[in-house]
Amino acid sequence: MPEKKREKSHAKVPDTVIARLGSTYFAWLDAHPDAAVTFQQSLVELLGDAGVTYDRVDVRVKSWPSLKAKARKLQDGVPVYPDPWQDIRDVIGARITVLHSTEIPAVLTLLADEFEVLRSVDKAQETRVSGGFGYGSHHLVLKVTGESEGLDDYVGTVFEVQVRTVLQHAWAEFEHDIRYKRSPGVARAGENDVDPQVDRAFTLAAGLIELADQQFDQIAGRTQSQHGVETDVTAELTPETLPGVLTVILGSRFPLSRAGDYQFLHELLRTHDIEHVSQLAELANPANIEAVTNSINYAFVPGQVRIVDDLLLNQFGAEHVERTAETGNRPRLRRERLKKRLATLREGRSS
Known about the structure:
Helices cover 57% and strands 11% of the residues. It contains 17 helices and seven strands. 26% of the residues are buried.
């Protein structure tokens, strides 16, 4: 028995494996210096286009010390990741936080439409099955495909996404800080010497968070369709009235976008002197909508802001690209995306 323990304590991942991982990692970093920004922008655009309400999107590339430590992990004396560069799936890691849990299924469906899903785990469900409260998050391992918009240079890349509510995220960050960051020796040993009362407090807090999330869901359900709107065709459009106006014009076919995105849409409309309800209704008539949806063949249900942007692109063509490419926070990305979408619209009209 002592012999086995001694052999196990000397087991380690060969230095040659770590050296090869380092060479591959740093070469990849040199070739993709903007990976985190590119993935973050792509996910933000995807969520915005689909009208999914979210809090924020964060993306990070794993640091070398963190990647190296993970690559050295053993289980029963055997490397957990025999080929670290291929086996470790979170070199690129993204986190999407939403305001309430009813948005999570929409995010998961959207990601499944845009990427190849290699793995999907509901951590909250796992915790409930085990009979307790605790870490709530949905983890996905995704692969970029040729259809993943804005990620042409990353086709075949695998990355991880965590989807949480803001309350779940707050709980997880605080719990991690208490258990690990403040007890590094304990974390390395894989033990937990946190006071049992702290454990009970975390369990109680997790239960309260779950109840709070349920209340947020109910509030969202009650208020989602309560948008005041002036239906008089002579009424002027404003960022505040656009959600209600578009709900009247479009019905429930296209979901509401994030509240902050309607200021952006208002700027797009004013660029083409569309300032009244009647003008917007004319732009968004059924024939135009059918032409756009048939040409683009969306992989997801576009939100109100995205569909109107595409209606403008369909009607004004290259003029819309030139007039609005600098609008918004990501002008270079927007110009490229508009050009691709315009080509798709033109191809659809000619076929």
